[in-house]
Write a structure and sequence with these properties.
The chain has six helices and 13 strands. It is an alpha+beta fold.
Length: 281
């Protein structure tokens, strides 16, 4: 299968988890220069060289090819040693102007059902949704709060098989901490003048990192500041979800990235549901 060079704006990293086939099932998604969403999977993010360790909102150049064992149209294999970062991540200054300019052509759905309908119709497995209202955040203990011995072994098996990294680097992978909780947003969308409620799991790396930061700073009182961010600060912005499906369960969706530009007073527009651009009509 032919490979090609691509330029991608990184929009998400999911929190890594062990896989029998990959060192980490960490999904990276972004937007190509032509405006199409793309999934780069799997990316051994924590193990690439510092100069290749890209960040959210950063443009990168890399060689990719269509994933052979993943039939989702957006899924591509990454040649890790070809990754080149372009400058600094896009700045959030001036009300996210640089980020708005980059993403302005993307489509955002006002109702999750429209995104799912697109998957059923066209096979699309990445898309943006703007919820009308966040109802709350569910925090539930993970069924297994820590990696099992088998999962820890899976975290390093590909390194040994492919010889991509030194033994010292392989040992570092074992220090990846599992988030002992699952986080789900409950939210509403408006479709055909009707309010519909949904619930989806948050798989964004930022949510996992926020949990560990709150635990480190506040100890057992971590939940209040964690909720303050996800139930308070983000819904007060123009919160949107970048959503993607699970490879093994193609009809199941996750929130893989949270996009939250500051709200700007909207221009007058027709009432009723619509499918518009990322930052308004």
């Amino acid at each position: 299968m032919a490979s090609r060079l691509a330029r991608v704006l990184i929009l998400c990293k999911t929190y890594p988890s062990p896989s029998g086939k990959h060192v980490e099932t960490s999904c990276v998604a972004g937007m190509e220069q032509n405006g199409k969403l793309i999934r780069l999977f799997p990316v051994p993010f924590r193990m690439v060289d510092d100069e290749r360790q890209f960040k959210k909102w950063q443009w990168v150049k890399l060689r990719i090819e269509k994933a052979k064992n993943d039939h989702r149209p957006e899924s591509h294999k990454v040649f890790v040693d070809t990754i080149e970062c372009e400058g600094d991540p896009l700045s959030p200054r001036y009300e996210w102007q640089a980020r708005r300019d980059a993403l302005g052509g993307l489509t955002v759905f006002d109702d999750f059902a429209a995104l799912e309908a697109g998957r059923a119709r066209d096979g699309a497995t990445l898309g943006m949704v703007r919820p009308a209202k966040i109802l709350g955040l569910d925090i539930t203990p993970a069924k297994v709060p820590d990696w099992t011995a088998e999962e820890k072994e899976k975290l390093v098996q590909d390194l040994r098989q492919e010889g991509l990294f030194e033994d010292a680097d392989a040992k570092k992978i074992k220090t990846l901490k599992k988030v002992p909780f699952d986080f789900h947003y409950r939210y509403e969308c408006i479709a055909d003048d009707k309010t519909v409620a949904y619930r989806h799991k948050i798989a964004d790396w930022e949510a996992g990192a926020l949990y560990w930061n709150c635990r480190q700073r506040y100890g057992q009182k971590w939940e209040e500041p964690f909720r303050k961010k996800l139930e308070g600060a983000l819904p007060e912005a123009d919160l949107m979800f970048l959503m993607g499906t699970i490879h093994r369960f193609p009809d199941q969706w996750l929130i893989v990235s949270l996009i939250y530009p500051p709200k700007i007073k909207p221009k007058p527009q027709p009432t009723g549901p619509h499918q518009g651009s990322l930052f308004g009509p």
